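User: Quick one: structure for sequence A, then sequence B.

Assistant: Sequence A:
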Amino acid sequence: MSPPVDLSPSAYLEDHPSVGRGVFASTIIPAGTEILSVADPLICIPDEAHLDTCCHYCMAEATDEASYVNQAYRPPVKLSYCLGCRVVKYCSKY
């Protein structure tokens, strides 16, 4: 099942023999025009700068108790390295 996708009338989906499935322009599209909107992200991964501070699964940021002083209470998020690759980290939720 594919996620809901809203595609601009200025673009279309097509399977291309050399580059695979993609979104292609059917007219000239001005800069800043939204051409594709996806209700739920298809893929979401932390960039290299956030590998140590972000859960690779749910994107929760690592925190500690001290960072929640004078804020609405949210439990701290502790991240642990993936036992397989030792590169990405996961929170205790998953």
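Sequence B:
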Amino acid sequence: MSDVPQTNSANGAKSPEWRKIGSFVSLKKRICQHVYAETGKKNDLALFYNEGKFYAMEAWCSHMGGPLYLGDLEDYGGSCHVMCPWHSYMFDLTTGKNEIGLRQDVFQVKVESGDVYILHAAALSLNRYEGRSYSRTDSANMTRKDPCLAVQEPKLPEV
């Protein structure tokens, strides 16, 4: 794990637990994705995969709530950052910091026995939770072209 202190803004009433998100093999195929929190939109996360490592931070930009899981990853100032798709603010994937003082909470991620886990107080899923209402923005983001698909390895013909 990183020596940078990790923060967690999820519901303080529960202690964080390692939450299984999915298999390393399937999750590494996407550069970024939305991780839903059972406790509601404010606790959703963005999961990023860059150069063999996973990162997790709050899904919604601290500036005006843009969906960071739809942002582009950029090398900025020598480290990997996500660029908010709404106003182009950059956040360091490791620290959550921004050069003008904005900050995103970041969460520890580990890979164990072929699965990816995030340390978080709420139950997490790559799928929407039943009974939870979603905004029109969430619905639109589900149907638009996904900028976060990683370059797919070519499939070899079966022999």
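The radius of gyration is 15 Å. The CA atoms of residues 89 and 100 lie 9 Å apart.

User: Thanks, that's what I needed.
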